[in-house]
Amino acid sequence: MSQVNLEVLRGLAQAAADCYDGALDENGDRYDLGLKRDEGHPVFDSRTMDGFKIKLSGNHCIVNYQSDIKLKEVYAGGFESEMEQTLQDIADHLKKKYKKLTGNSVTLTPDGDADVLVQSTSRVRVFVNAQKKFRIGALEDVEDLTEESEDRLESSFKSFLDAGGWGNDPENKNQKPSES
What we know:
The protein is of the alpha+beta class. The chain has one domain. It is 29% helix and 22% strand. It contains four helices and five strands. Strands 1, 2, 3, 4 and 5 form a five-stranded antiparallel beta sheet that branches. Strand 4 (115-120) and strand 5 form a beta hairpin. Helix 1 crosses helix 3 (79-102). The longest helix has 24 residues, at 79-102.
């Protein structure tokens, strides 16, 4: 792995690590990520539990968002587009935070639609898991893990498989064990 790739991955990981609930920016103000936990007063108002994490895989940054919401929000309409927008807001914040930390810019290009899973916890509340892949543009010479791999077998192992490998039964398969 090149030094440039390592710095990009470390920068993204640090940008995500600095976005925990209750984190303060350099001015002492709370970060506003656009999440539901940022709405209202942290002590006096009923707060929604939500958050995100990232996974770095090959040349992709996978953003996972989880939230505890009311069932009526799911059926209100536009729920999937709201989840897409939330994931895009998180990616935009990661890019902005990365720029502050490293002084360089990074591109996170959406790669497909978001996967949204809604699970019932009661008759009123549901738990939402949303996931979306973003292609990291600043990485150099990194294999795309979503593409099919090519066969690269050693010649000795290939000849072993061609000869039958483990698929052939031995000649003495039906022979009864000897009594000792």
